Amino acid sequence: MQKEPNEATEIVGGKVEMVEVSKHPEASIPVTELSLADIERRRSHPARWIAVIVAALVAIIAPYWFGRTLAVNNTDAVVAALGGIEPRGIALVGWAVVVIAYVGLAMAVVVSPSWPWLIVFVIGLAAEQFIAGLSMLNLNFWYSTYVVYGDQANVFNAANLGILAAAIGIAVYAVVFVGLLVIIKKTSPLNVLTKSWASFILYFAIEALALFVILFGGLLTAV
Fold first, then answer.
1. Is the pLDDT score of 71 beyond 60?
2. Among 116, 90, 88, which residue's Cα sits nearest to residue 103?
3. Are the C-beta atoms of residues 66 and 135 closer than 8 Å to each other?
4. Which value, to the nearest 10 degrees, does the dihedral of the CA atoms of residues 203, 205, 206, 210 take?
5. Cα 193 vs. chain centroid, distance in angstroms?
6. CB crowding 134-172: b at 16 or more within 10 Å, else e
7. What is the pLDDT of residues 166-213, one digit of tens each?
8. Contact, 223 vs 143, CB < 8 A?
9. Are 59 and 126 contacting, i.e. CB atoms less than 8 angstroms apart?
10. Residue-level pLDDT at 184
């Protein structure tokens, strides 16, 4: 049995002609009562992000409180454990935990929204908050650390400076990256700078510069 051609009327070159069109006897998309918004909502895994937000809030509050409690109530034990550490070393630790937390979050959001990267983010955030609590991080931390730790305050000031250096690095990177997105056209060869791998290189370059300033810029001896 010969199939009837599937044709339609179309204007071609100013003339009306019959042209063949594709024929789909069966729907390529399964029938569903879900709307496009419902489908996108399911793909976004809202339960996962709710769990991450709750975990992040816990990681912000609990470790900071615990670290601060140790600093106030167990000062001698904290000084005995950390007082002999080189300030540059503790600054590096403070810087590193912030970088780890940010990289975990960035990888989860931009590259692969999977549990491992989200766990890295939460662990890094918790570590940063614990160090911040232990080092009495606030707007005038140099006064708080001196009151609590006395002559050993420089070690804990260094931890705070490491954390602040990494945080400032993130802020500078965000401004630079957004500026690149605004300035560089999509057709420009420089658009490669907005790719994910290039943005990560830019981020680590800025963070490395921030760390260098903290370690060798004389700030560790200024507070």
1. yes
2. 116
3. no
4. 130
5. 19
6. bbbbeeebbebbbebbeebbbbbbbbbbbbbbbbbbbee
7. 999 999 999 998 898 888 887 878 788 878 788 889 999 999 999 999
8. no
9. yes
10. 83
The DSSP call for residue 185 is -
User: How do the domains of the chain map onto residue ranges?
Assistant: 46-221
pLDDT of residue 10: 61
d(CA 91, CA 215): 8
Please name the residue that has the structure tokens 């420009």. Answer: 188
Phi and psi at 53, nearest 5°, equal: -65, -45
Give burial (CB, 10 Å; 0-12/13-18/19+) of 68.
buried
Give residue 174's Cα distance to chain centre: 11
3-state DSSP percent of the chain in helix, strand and coil, to 5: 75, 5, 20
Instruction: Report the alpha-carbon distance of residue 214 to residue 65 in Å, rounded.
Output: 26
Contact 157, 82 (CB under 8 A): no
Structure confidence by residue, pLDDT tens digits, 77-131? 999 988 788 999 999 999 999 999 999 988 888 776 678 888 999 999 999 999 9
Q: Report the residue count for the chain.
A: 223
- 206 Cβ neighbours under 8 A, 6+ residues apart: 169, 172, 173, 176
Q: What is the pLDDT of residues 21-39, one digit of tens each?
A: 655 555 555 555 555 455 4
